[in-house]
Amino acid sequence: MKVLQLGKFYPIRGGVEKVMWDVTAGLSAEGVDCDMLCATLDSDPVDDEDKSRISETDECKVIRFNGHGRVLIVRAMAKIAATMISPAMVRYLRRHCSEYDIIHVHHPDPMAALALFLSGYKGRVFLHWHSDILSQKVFLMLYKPLQSWLIRRAEKVVGTTPVYVRDSPYLKKVQDKTTYIPIGIRPVEPDDVKVKEIKKLYKDKKIVFSLGRLVPYKGFEYLVQAARNLPDDYIVLIGGKGPLDSKLRGMISAAGLEDKVKLLGFMAKEDVPGYFGACDVFVLSSVMKTEAFGIVQIEAMSCGKPVVATRIPESGVSWVNEHGYSGLNVGIMAPEALSDAITSVCSDNKTHEKFSNNARNHYLSVFTEKGMISNFLNLYEERTKTNDCSVADNACILRNPGENRVS
Q1: 401 near 322, Cβ under 8 Å?
Q2: Total number of domains in the chain
Q3: DSSP E strand boundaries for 27-122
């Protein structure tokens, strides 16, 4: 079996690209021949850690994982509406698509869909539905016919949560061929020295940590407002940068919260684990369906940290964080509910310890990278056993959070 992951650009700067990378690496480590085809504008796109594995052909740059896995990086001409425009991707796929038994397309990526459409590929297509296109309304109108073709062409549509594939308006008519495989990650491993440094810096404080781009859909203004209601022995630390930085700093200053809310700015990836390790609770305050899953939640859970998240309509965020088990979920745009949930989780040592242990167990049972790879292998193998590409049985049975729960 030979598989191609097709989608977003390299280097890895977002959740979709990270999932593509992890699936490619994980499948190849299991002995599956798996390539990842993506496009970039960068003349030198390869991260320093990957440069020792790089080679180049007339068609693309190649990063080799092992004897079974490769990342194939082609050139893009431009980036429009968060989409790489890459005739080179079309050319590569037309020449090589027949080499693959399965093409696994990661959505949303209109360039990947167009390349597949023009390739003439006759084999099996799996569509990985990470999220709907929400912000590019005009572009979506142009893309909709191709998106509809891609949904029809796919033998199986795979979401990251059952909620998103059930509630997406674009998947209503194909529920018989949808399934879900939760995103899985390797556990975050905090450095004990850095954790101690952070805890010493905020001595005698309960640390509330949040992480993400400072953009409207993340809802950080509601977390800042929630801090007003937190006792004085709480400190809110928000990591990340973005266009709302000045607005948030203004809110913090106007409310006199300089000692209770700290904006940490851009965080290097090597610094992030320390904050996960040092915090008492992680908060995801997002307010829009753009937040489809919230990988940061499972990063926190992997460290045994309870999560307070929001119930976003049609999003999988509150499915990922099992209410009452791995943490608590509250309504969107509700600062008082956020602060109440934060203090409830941290109300006493026994309650906090229970949530912490549950969060770690929730990660181990549902969200490991090994589990995700195993589920994709099951899906591929089940589908390739039949010549009928329209069969819609679920290839993998995943435990629903809360099912047969023993607390």
Answers
A1: yes
A2: 2
A3: 33-40, 54-56, 61-64, 69-75, 78-80, 83-85, 102-107
Domain containing 159 equals 2-180
Scanning the structure block, which residue is given the tokens 């939760």? 182
Q: Which two tokens stand for residue 298?
A: 């499972």
* Alpha helices (H) along 120-270: 137-153, 162-167, 192-201, 220-227, 245-254
Cβ(81)–Cβ(109) under 8 Å? no
Residue at which a domain ends, from 145, 160, 180: 180
Cα 192–Cα 196–Cα 199 angle in degrees, nearest 5: 140
Distances from the Cα of 323 to the Cα of 229, 311, 330, 360, angstroms? 22, 10, 9, 14
**β-pair type (102-107, 83-85):** unpaired
pLDDT, tens digit, for every residue of 213-227?
A: 999 999 999 999 999
Whole-prediction pTM = 0.88
Q: Which two tokens mark 407? A: 């607390």
State residue 390's pLDDT score.
Answer: 41
